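debug: dumping io for the single-chain case to check the tokenizer round-trip. Nothing else runs in this session.
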Amino acid sequence: MPAPDPASLHPEDPAPVTGETLRGDDWYGRDLTGLTYTACDFYDTDWTETTGSGARFDRCTFSGVRFNVSHLTATAFTHCEFRRCSFFDARLDQCKAVGSTFDDCSFRLLKVTGGDWSFTSFPRADLRKAVLDGVRMREADLRGARLDEAEVTGTDLSGALLAGVSLTGADLRGSDLSALDAHTLDRTALAGARIDPAQAVGIAVAIGFEVA
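debug: decoded output
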């Protein structure tokens, strides 16, 4: 019996796509593994329950795209724009979103684990009860965002823009809070937020206390 063709066991990744516009496409449940899209526009497409790893989207625009219940691993969305997209119950593990912007998107039950989300922008985003665990979010723009009851644990927020952010009841343990200006935040925005002892010392020093 002849040996199987190695190419049939490990098919090549799909050909890269550049500069295309997709409108209203149904990608429900699609495996995105190995896809590469550059400078493409996705309008009102359904990505519900998509899965896969290693896909790359660079300088793409997503408008009205539904990422609901998606589970993507090691997928890159670099310098992309997300407008009016839905991430209901989406899971993004070890993904990269450096330089991407999220405008008027919904994030109910979003869970992000690991990965690099530095220089992202979430103007006035509603991230209540979202999970951001071990994420690198250096210099992310979270001004006016609502992170009430969110789990923001072990996350690097150094240099992040946090003016007007609401963290009521949030779990912030293990995160870098050096960019948090306790002088300017409304105390109600921090009510019930949980921090660890090391974070408490850092905040106390930042507002002028001497810790003996």
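debug: round-trip ok. Residues 3-10 have pLDDT under 50 and may be disordered.
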